[in-house]
Prior knowledge:
The chain is built from two helices and 28 strands. It has 340 residues and is mainly β. It has a single domain, classed as TolB, C-terminal domain (Neuraminidase, 6 Propeller).
Amino acid sequence: xxxIAYLLSMLLFVSCGRLTELHKEYDAESHVVDVAxxxxxxxxxxxxxSVFGTPCILNDYLIISDYKSPDKLIHIFDKNTFAHxxxxxxxxxxxxxxxNMGSIVSDASDxxxxxxxxxxxxxLGYPMYSVLQxxxxxxxxxxxxxxxxxxxxxxxxxxxxxxxxxxxxxxNGDYRPVAAKWNMKTGHKDFMDYAGHPQIERKRxxxxxxxxxxxxxxxxxxxxxxxxxxxxxSLKYNLYGRRWNARTSNDDRxxxxxxxxxxxxxxxxxxxxxxxxxxxSIRVNYPTKLLIFDLEGNHLxxxxxxxxxxxxxxxxxxxxxxxxxxxxxxxxxxxxxxxV
Length: 340
């Protein structure tokens, strides 16, 4: 009996040690740095872009996609001067047109960007050289996507390997985002073993992956939680905020976007009520904070921008974030030197 009791105690010790290893905590209100005065506005006069404009970096270029744009849906700028270079991507269901635009994904090695078109169920490819030479360039159809399981975002490596977040339609009419290795050429998907926090019934997350660091991150929209995973699909750490709970509700919003910025992880964070009533109308509350983590999931600092951040992207060459926010000036950038 003593031998059995000892064995059970050792198993419990190992189990508890493993749980401790996978569990980290952060406080978004700690180590706060006010960076509002460091943000520089970007004055984009040449093109009218709606509040849905989403920035993306491809080598020397800033790409802003805008599915509400009245003419071309994709606008390309010099990322250093912010001068407008060209606009491409006609809306429509004809050959070479975009019926329902999703995310834009960069392929830096080939200087090409890809567009997810949910309307025609295709991944469209735009080589930057061809686009700059011809604003009427008709994109290549890189890959077909499925109606039931389709990518919402992905990190392109080559034609046979991308790390992607797929939307999986459920029988009850809901959906669940799941991470996968994706062969764009064959359509094969190898879903990651870690499918999400077991206590969360309605999973909603933003996704980013880094081949350089061998990691991907899922940042939860309606839970104070990030999951840091290895690219083999195993959980490395769950990072719990001080407002963590597993209840099913979208009243509060936590994370919105997440990205690898050098050897750090940056995520935009609200940590409060998602919607508020203002002058008899409903207003969406956007994050103003940027949470900084190291690659082991340790919270390093919180950058307070005092700007309502809709989305952002990382300009590695200039070590800065380019942000789109709900403000009179729609776009701005924050130099990360000395901050990250």
